Amino acid sequence: MRFRHPDGSVVHLSYCTNVHPAETLAGVLAQLRDHCEPVRRRLGRDRLGIGLWLARDAAHALINDPAALRGLRAELERRGLEVVTLNGFPYEGFGAEEVKYRVYRPDWTDPERLAHTTDLARLLAALLPDDVTEGSVSTLPLAWRTDFGADRAETARAALATLAERLDALQELTGRSIRIALEPEPGCTVETTADAIAPITAVGAPHRIGVCVDTCHLATSFEDPRTALTALADAGVFVPKAQLSAALHAEHPHLPEVREALAAFAEPRFLHQTRTSTAAGLRGTDDLAEAVGGAALPDGSPWRSHFHVPLHAPPAPPLTSTLPVLTETLALLVGGPAPRTRHLEVETYTWQALPPELRPRNRTQLADGIAAELTLARDLLTDLGLKELP
Questions:
Q1: CA angle 353-357-361, nearest 5°?
Q2: Which of 168, 138, 139, 142 is nearest to 155 (CA)?
Q3: Alpha-carbon dihedral of residues 22, 26, 28, 32, nearest 10 degrees?
Q4: What angle do CA 46, 52, 58 make, to 5 degrees?
Q5: With bands split at pLDDT 50, 70 and 90, how would you rate the model's confidence at 21?
Q6: Is 62 within 8 Å of 56 (Cβ atoms)?
Q7: Cα-Cα-Cα-Cα dihedral of 65, 67, 70, 72, to 10°?
Q8: In what order do the strands lie in the sheet with 281-285?
Q9: What is the pLDDT of residues 75-95, one digit of tens each?
Q10: In whole angstroms, what is the distance from residue 205 CA to residue 221 CA?
């Protein structure tokens, strides 16, 4: 979905396909048929943007077979789909029964992360629509926080610097500008937008490496959107893309009924880092079960958990979502005289991890839910003065 900003530029809205597990190229093609095109039809649009997730095996198949890559591009066009951004954070196995800490491997100290991200950039340059010259790839915020000392930090910095050089060469070759966005996430060495500034500026490639602002992560870490975005701007760090998502919020976590409601979201597939803001600073646990199961986390102030809940359907009381943080952040990003990012991606990948009574029971219900999320995002954008394009 494309929108015209009042300044005349185009802002793209998509939804991320990591909600549909697929490790192979055949699986990606099935996603387009079984999920993405049905969502587009529900929205009544001739064209729908998707934030494509290409796992390692799918990316390898495409990078090594130009005919397969041409076939994917043709299939996107045939189904009324377009790609301006890729989600390069998960490497493989995102649809496994247990993902948890595995999603942070390989990290930016492993040569395979550099190789994979380089492949994704090359693929995106080939998949961009003919009238689009700028693409974005979101990626792991360096590494999980443990065992990340100075030596590993320097290895990661060198890998990003190499990537920036490759992206410069790619633009010279193709005319397409691909930018990489570190996605701050609770528990990682880059947990907040503030944490991202030093490693990004150290790379010395401000035109290539920036930040992906995920509004669920931003809210979980209790970052103030205005403060966060102002700090990025002051440091010269740009935002190649933003992910529109909402975290789980519990206003009164000391109450037994609130703990019980939260426990229903403590599930075995994904890691749900949980945080609270105290007078002594941010406190947290690596997972929601650890928080609700005892006294690991102070409960005198609200808790937020890294659980991407559907934008249009916040959980029932006594819980809610951080949709207001999304709304405020979006206004700051695209509601001003010029957009601070042109790539927006709805990223609710946890539909099948919701409590059983809230999960979609079939493809039809999932497509309905994704279309409802995109409708909400579209309405927020038009309320900010953007005009939806055909």
A1: 75
A2: 142
A3: -130
A4: 125
A5: confident
A6: no
A7: -70
A8: 281-285, 274-278, 303-309, 246-250, 319-321
A9: 999 999 999 999 999 999 999
A10: 27
